[in-house]
Every structure is written in C-alpha cells, then in structure tokens.
Amino acid sequence: MVKRRQFLGCLTALGGSVLLSACGGGGSEDGSGSTSSSSAAKATTTARAATGSTNGTAMPPASSITDKAGGVWTLSNGVIYRNGAVVGNNYNVSLVLWYGGRMYHCNKSGYFYVNAEVANGWLPCTDPRIAVAQTPGGFYGMNGHYDYTYTPAQLVTILKAMGCTSYRVGCTSDPTQINAVAKLAQTFQSAGIKLLVLIQQGLYDSTGKLFSGESTAYSAAYSAGSTIARALSPYGVTMYECGNELTRDGAIILDSTNAGTKALDFNNANWPVMRGAMRGMIDGVKSVQSSAKCGINFCVNDVGASDALWDGMQPDGSGGHPTVRWDITTWHNYEVYGDIFNIGTDGGGAGIDLPIYCKARYGVPFMITEWNTGPEQAEAYRANYISAKLTEFYQQRKTHNIQSVMYYVLDSGNDTFGIMMNGTPINPSYSAFTSFTASNPDN
C-alpha cells in the first residue's frame, strides 16, 4: 500500500471536477492517501457559479429566490417551482429557505426538507438555521500514528503544549496495534485528552479479495469493532471512527474524479459490502460499549453516499435496505477538495455549506478528522493556511455543530504534512497553530 506522503500530490483537476482517491487516515503511515493543493485545483472546485440570493433569504417575505446557478424559485398555492417547473414532490409548503447553498422548505405541518440530488428532489431534515450548544473540550485535535517512537507521556506533553484537546489514531484488530493504542489511551485518560480511535477495517479479506457480500463484510467488521472496543473501553475511549474513507475505495467509487454528490457516483454491486462493513464496526463497538459514539467518515462532497447510507438506499435508487446510522458525522477536507463551507459539486456547480447540510440532515455532531493543505506547499504557505482555516473553523463551530477539527498530522517523518519532526517543531506552521489555540479558548 502506498504511503500517504508518497502518494499525495498526484491529484489534478479534470474537466471541472476534482481528481480524488482514498486518503489514508490517522492510522499507521502505510495507509493509502490523497490530497494535493495547487491554487488552480482549488479554484476549479469552488467558484464559478452565478451570484444568487443572499444566504438566509426566505420566501415569504421574498417573492422569489435565485440560486447560485441562476435558477429562479417561486412559491404558488403551496407548491415550489424553479424556472416555472414544479420541483419534485412538494405540497402544502409554507416557507422556502435558501441557506448554505441549498434550498429548504417547511410544510404547513412544520416538517423541513432539503433539495438534493435524489429521485423526488427532497429529503427530510431539520431547520438548518438552528444553532447547537457545543460541549467544551476536544475542539483542537491532531492526528498521529500508533507506531510513533514518542512515548505516550511525551505525546501528552507535546499535545498540551500545542493546545490540543483531542487526538486521532488508528489501529486494526492486530494485537500489536491494539496494545500500542491501549497504552496511549491509558495515559491520555489521566491527562484529560480525548482519544478518537479509527478502526482500520477495510473491505477485503486476508487474501486481498473483496468480501463476497454484505453479511461476510459485516461479520469481519463486527469482530474488529468488538475486539478493539473491548481492549480500549477500560481506558476511557468513548469515540470510534468506523473505517477510513471507504467510499473512496476503488471498488466503491466509480470515477474518482467525481465529488460524490450523487448516489449514482458509487458502485451499486459492491455497495452492500461497504454498508456491511460500516454496520458491522458500529454494531461491534456497541456490543461492548452501548454508549460509545461511532462515526463514519466521508471525503470531498460525498453527500450522495452519506444520504444513501443514512436512508438505506442503493446507488440505483432502490430503497428498503439496511440503514447506517452514526453518532458523529466525520469528514476529511484537504485544500484541493475546496472550502468545506462552500464545497463544489460535480461538474463544477455551485458550492454548499457541508457542515450545515449534515447538521440538518443527520442531527449529530460534525468532526473534520483530517485537514491540511498539500504536501508540496512551503511552510510559510502552510502556516498562513493553518491560521486561516482555524479562524474559519472556530468562528463556525457553534452554528455548524463542529465538535472537533483534527490536523493531519503531528509527525509525518518529514516536512510534507507534519507539524513537527522527531520532537522538533516545524516553523512557522507550528507557531501558527499554537498561537491560535493560545488566543482562542476551547469553550
């Protein structure tokens, strides 16, 4: 498997879409990876749509709303129209709301729906304008690896000096990896640092073949989830991320240049294998810790995948399948993917405010469990990027229900992603991070 720092930087922009591939998460350095961030790629993923109505415009009192693509939405006798055509299945509508790059409506019974790329055009949600009370602690996070040469005590000292209150690390069900993470968990528990454990369970059996079906994938993942939770729960671990960028596996994403906004972007035949693995990890963890919080992570603008999983849909549009319900929505957001608060759609369409959408759709906290610019950037650029993104994340944390943002990575063995190397800070990136955390309390 190609190491992240060797693999990243291979991304380009194709025809207005982002070239994507599965990132390797907070596990060992031999996880696969993705992201690059040229300014050209970023520009391709963000702005090229017409100016629409002001965010938050509601109808009534407005007589019409213009979206970013220039479409004009109107409301007549409780029915919504776009450029004169009825938009999906809607009726008895009392309010139409343009918010976060999406159109929402509320019917006379008080139920909210969001316009999405699905057959009937609308999915159930809550009012996206509602702010959520945030639990203090854990907002400033860092990624690391189980096989670092740092001792757990050294990591605690390093993280506290940086103002970090959470740490993401991955492991498989291999005893060596579990034991290493257990030692971290024990030390972190007494230090008051929250640990998010990434369960590195994939979609393939021990011979490297894709699992034969949903039940086989479920069983293997259930075993991994329960084994890891059983080992770590005595040390205060209560949060698990179940799988790493499984939607971006080559067996799942049909075309890695797609942003993932449509369920049709994903392989219908192999979808049950991924769904089974996700369900198995969650159920395995909860068989040991019923109160544990489990997350499923996504990349780029994979709302086509997240919506289908949440609602028990297949990519072909068929329903009634098992649902995947997570306690935390987790996302990866590297610079090449675009601004997560205005992330582009397939074909270079208008961007959406992804955390707002997820807050309204799934009603659970949001975590950005990997973020950074690209490996090719100079440290001065990276430092400015860190300051700018932390400012953005911090300002939006309460309105968007963002529970944690976890920088990738503490130490990458070189200066491609790491913010320190062999215990020595890499500046000015390190100073930019620590200066921000010192001036902006995690409350």
From TrEMBL:
InterPro entries attached to this UniProt entry: GH
Regions crossing the membrane: none
PROSITE patterns: PROKAR_LIPOPROTEIN
Low complexity bias (residue ranges): 31-58
Signal sequence interval, chain numbering: 1-22
Region of interest called Disordered, as start-end residue ranges on this chain: 31-62
Name of the protein this chain belongs to: Glycoside hydrolase family 5 domain-containing protein
